[in-house]
Structures are given as structure tokens and as C-alpha cells.
Amino acid sequence: MALAGTSKVVLGCIAFGIFWVMAVFPTVPFMPVGRTAGSLLGAMLMVLFRVISPEDAYAAIDLPIIGLLFGTMVVSIFLERADMFKYLGNLLSWKSRGSKDLLFRVCIVSAFASALFTNDTCCVVLTEFILKVARQNNLPPQPFLLALATSSNIGSAATPIGNPQNLVIAVESGISFGQFLLGVFPAMIVGVLTNAAILLLYFWKYLSVEKDQEGGQPEGPEVVADDEVTSHRFTPARMSHVSSLNPDDVDCISEPIIRSNSVSTSVNENLRSRSINSEADIQLAIKSLRASSMSHEMVEVSTVPDRRDEGASSRKFTRTASQQRSVIIEDLPPSPEANGEKEKEAQVEEKRWKILVWKTAVYLITLGMLIALLMGLNMSWTAITAALVLLALDFTDAQACLEKVSYSLLIFFCGMFITVDGFNKTGIPNTLWELVEPYSRIDSAKGVALLAVVILILSNVASNVPTVLLLGTRVAASAAAISHGSERKAWLILAWVSTVAGNLTLLGSAANLIVCEQARRAQFFGYNLTFWSHLRFGVPSTIIVTAIGLLIVISY
Hints:
The protein is mainly alpha-helical. The chain is 73% helix and 2% strand. Residues 297-323 are annotated as: Disordered. The chain crosses the membrane at residues 9-28, 59-79, 102-131, 181-204, 361-393, 405-423, 448-471, 491-515, 535-554.
């Protein structure tokens, strides 16, 4: 495709440049409107500048991708309500054997969770809990936050539902869920383990410091309470009941008051004499009861008419005092308080069973969705169907659940589709690709390396989703000229490199920004993950993990 007219090229570059600035720097000083408004602004300018027609703008919106995003969001919301992420949090601290073991668990759990529930969702849910565990064990938060962000990005590369760019690749390429999983999952496993090893080597000295040397505070508990995983609140300490104090303790407590106030002294002495008198009365009552219990051998003789005989004959029977007391106790009707407690216990048990059945249904429906995806069914409609079934089985108004869906992200994608399609119509991306394409063919090691560098740089400059939209069809067409298998391999290379490229800088992935913001705003456990602290680890980790993963993806 040749370059369009000069005015169209200039105006298209202006519209795309505004979109890029808003997407990469959402709080830019001269227009802090955010990414969503920035994408809509770029789309509107593409139409106003006549770079793209209104009809083409509507057609540029990829509805299957929007549907797949919506379905996975709803399923993730229900999984969060069903305490799936709370169980994942408990898994991190369950029988932890120290700081290095905890770091390794964060890498593994966040990677597998991101492959199934998207990396952004996992980072939102797990960031504050990981901060809490690190602080309670007097550990530095930085390695654990980096482990969460980087492992979530690497793990999300394994499945089409792990991140937005993989959704685009799966829909555009037509690669099934199973083929995608087989092609990238081995690279993901090796990549996560490699990233964990780099983290351990990089922070070995900090993780090896004894807890008592890191701070003068005593060791905190290794395991966090279940309800704190999701609520992130401290539970107040329980107060001891006053009746647990013995009389001596009461005397000890009242002594300072007696010394300080003469009026209170007389009152306290009065009360104390009353308490002593009452104790004496109690002792007398106990002695009388003991005396009566000693007379258990004596029996009470009573006469009752014998119903078998109509005469005045009577028969005698005897009851001991203990038997009389037992009869009195048995004859007493149950108190209304006991009945109320039993009803409350029955209601609590019934509610517990309902919650258990509901959670089981959520997990089974999610498992069914994954099985359907592995069977090769349409990914978009499969996710939407699972979402609608969950909404129907909730038996409540769906508004509360649907309000948690990130509609701003869906709108951002719509605006981005229009903006990128308009930029493609200027002819600039195609012209630049024609310069690089002869040297970046995937049938040679040098070509794969150059293609990976282009994807890596462009993903951090223009973000990974626009990179996939700009390069996807061009890379696939170049590989299709080699063989049909090479085309699928090119899509998988694009998926792997564009996802892992998010670990290069703090701005390279939305998951990184989520971890940074969640950690900074965390109550009681706030931590500022800076751009440079991420970059120092991100550069070597991204290069090594990308290179190792490429060797595995190419061999598929």
C-alpha cells in the first residue's frame, strides 16, 4: 500500500500522535483526561480529518474481541466473589519456608492465575495482600512486587484470555485455544522459572538478611487470616470479660483508687463489706445444700391413690432428692432463648450450604468454559455464554455485578481500533514494514532476532495492543509466503514477544502500572515502586526471558 495524500498523512499522524501521548502518559499536564478519553479523541479526529469515513470507523471495531473481553471480565468478577483469589492468597503463605520460598510462590501463583484470569485482574487483587505478607514478615516489598508484575505478564502469554493482545491475536489469526496453549505454554513455564531465578539472584542479599536485623520489631505471623485477604482490614482485639477477674484482682485494681480519694475509700469499703457478707451468705447456703445432700438416704414417703383399686387403698413410693430435682428439670419447658439459638444455627448452616453450592457452580461453569475453549468453540460466544449463565444462576439483580465491568477499557479498545485503522490507511506502517520485512523473515535466526527487537521496541513505545494491531497481519502475511505452519508460528512469536516486552519498563504494561498504583495507595502497607527500580531489573530479565522463550516457540 502506497502512501496516501500529504494532507491525509499529516492529519493522520497528528490524530495518532495525540492518541499515543494519551495512551502512554494518561495524566499529561496539558490534557489529563486519561487513556479512554484519549482513544476516543484520536478516533474522533481520524473521522473529522477525513482520514477514515464514519462507516469504516464503525467497521473497524472488532466486536468479537469486545465480546470476549466482556465475557472474561464477568467471569473474573464472579470468581473473585467466589473467593478464588482469597484461596490463591492463602496458597502464598501456607507453610511458607522463608523469604525465598515466598518469592518463588508469588512467581508461580501469579503466572498461572494470570493465564486463566488475565494479568490485570490478578495484579489488582493480589498486590495489597502480597504487601501485607511482606510487611508482616519484615521483608522488603520490592522483590515481591516485581515478582508479581513480571510473572503476571509472562504467565498471561500462555493463553488467548491471558491479556488483551492475545485476544486480538487469537481472533485475527484463527488459532484455536488448544493450539495457542501448546505453542506458548512450554515457553511460559521456562520463562517464569527463569524470571524467578533472576529475581532470587538479584535480591539474594536482601532476602538473606535475618528478620531481627532488618528491623527491631518482633516477628510477625507468617499466615494472614482468611478474611483479611479480601477485606485488607485489621480485626480488633477481643476484650476480656469482667467476670474473668478474681476478687483479688478486683482488690488490686481498686487499691490505687482508695489511696487517691477519701470519699471513694468509704464507698469501696462499704462495697467490699457487702461483698464479704454476700460471700458468707453464699457459703452458708452451700453448707446447707451439702447437709441436705447428706440426707439423700432419707426418703420422702407420699401416698397416692391406686388407680387399679377403687377403694381407699393407697400405695407408697419413694424418691430421692436427686430424682426429684431431675424430674423438675425434665418437666421444665424449653426456654425461648434456646429455641431462638437453634433457629439461628439452622439458618446459618442453611446459608453456609447455599454459599458452598453457589461457589461450586461458579467453579464448574468456569471449568466448562475452559473445556469449551480447548475444544475449539468460538471464544467470544463461549465467554459471553459463561458470563450469562453465571448472571442467571446468581438469582439477584445483575446490576451490582455488571457495574464492576471495566467499560472504560471496552471503550478504550473501540477508540483504539478506529485510530489504528485510520493510521493504517495513511500507508505509513506499511511503508516502514516494507523496509524491515526482507530482514525479519522467521526462516532464519537473524530474521527472528530482528523481528523480536522491532516488536520489543514498538511495544514499549506504542504499547503492546497497538503494536499487535499494526504488525499482526503484516508479519503473518510475510510468514505465509514461507509456509502455512510459519504463519501460525509468526502469530505465536508476536504473542510471546509483545507480552514479555511489557516487563522492560514500568510503562510497558498496564499490569505494571496497576501494581505500582495499588502498592502506592495501599493503606498501612504503602510502597512506591519507582520507574528506575523497575528498569534495573526489567531490562536484563526481559532480554533473557524473551530469548529463551523464542527458542521454545520457534521449535514448536
